[in-house]
């Protein structure tokens, strides 16, 4: 009875991980031989692990990753892709996000840019960073709608506070002149506390032409390109290869 009461108190205090571990601990015969210090340590570890898992789950839900199951461990390093594996491994600790650096993935359609971006996004969530995924086209539409209905401040706050903002398929359609200053402001503020991950079919040397306002183009590219890591994806279309395997 005392065990049940203790479990209920732990649940009331919001210590659900500790409550489950407490129940499991008393179901194990060997628990009688565990010292008080070790028992407290096990319960504390269980609570920390439970909170970490719940935080990761929240981050993943908010991230809205297009490929939610993509992981860096599943990257295909076949020679034709010419991937820089040492660089990818060095980026897997997500220290570049803490250092407010950016990651640029370029390559032809189908080479796996979006998938790899989501794999880095998942890794960032696991490392305790908030993530938000959107395509460039969707972001432009969201910004235009937000300007029209007055919700731009709310959307701006969401994007700015995100530690890793993933902008997929930059270059599909140009940036409207009216949106340029808004996009610049968001990128300027977001990169003060986080990082950008951008994918594009076009090399960075072609990005300038995407903006109708050269002043805005200079300012945005200066904030993105000059402190970024770059990975170029090559080889055959991964979509075609997977389709041929079916």
TrEMBL record:
Alphabetized UniProt keyword annotations: ATP-binding, Nucleotide-binding
InterPro entries given in the database record: AAA+_ATPase, DNAC/IstB-like, IstB, IstB_ATP-bd, P-loop_NTPase
Pfam families the record matches: IstB_IS21
Domain AAA+ ATPase: 99-231
Family recorded in the similarity comment: Belongs to the IS21/IS1162 putative ATP-binding protein family.
Protein name: AAA family ATPase
């Amino acid at each position: 009875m005392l065990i049940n009461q203790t479990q209920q108190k732990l649940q009331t205090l919001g210590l659900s991980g500790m409550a489950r571990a407490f129940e499991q601990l008393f179901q194990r015969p060997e628990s009688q031989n565990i010292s008080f210090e070790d028992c407290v340590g096990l319960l504390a570890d269980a609570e920390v692990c439970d909170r970490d898992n719940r935080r990761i789950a929240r981050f993943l839900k908010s991230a809205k990753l297009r490929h939610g199951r993509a992981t860096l461990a599943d990257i295909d390093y076949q020679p034709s892709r010419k991937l820089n594996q040492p660089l990818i491994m060095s980026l897997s600790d997500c220290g570049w996000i803490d250092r407010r650096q950016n990651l640029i993935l370029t390559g032809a359609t189908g080479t796996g840019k979006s998938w790899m971006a989501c794999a880095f996004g998942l890794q960032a969530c696991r490392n305790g960073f908030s993530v938000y995924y959107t395509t460039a086209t969707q972001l432009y539409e969201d910004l235009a709608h937000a300007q029209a209905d007055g919700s731009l401040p709310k959307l701006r706050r969401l994007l700015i506070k995100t530690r890793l903002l993933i902008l997929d398929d930059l270059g599909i359609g140009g940036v409207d002149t009216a949106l340029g200053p808004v996009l610049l402001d968001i990128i300027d503020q977001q990169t003060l506390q986080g990082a950008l991950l951008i994918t594009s079919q076009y090399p960075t040397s072609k990005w300038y032409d995407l903006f109708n306002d050269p002043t805005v183009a200079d300012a945005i590219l200066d904030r993105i390109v000059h402190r970024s890591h770059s990975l170029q994806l090559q080889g055959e279309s991964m979509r075609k290869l997977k389709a041929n395997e079916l």
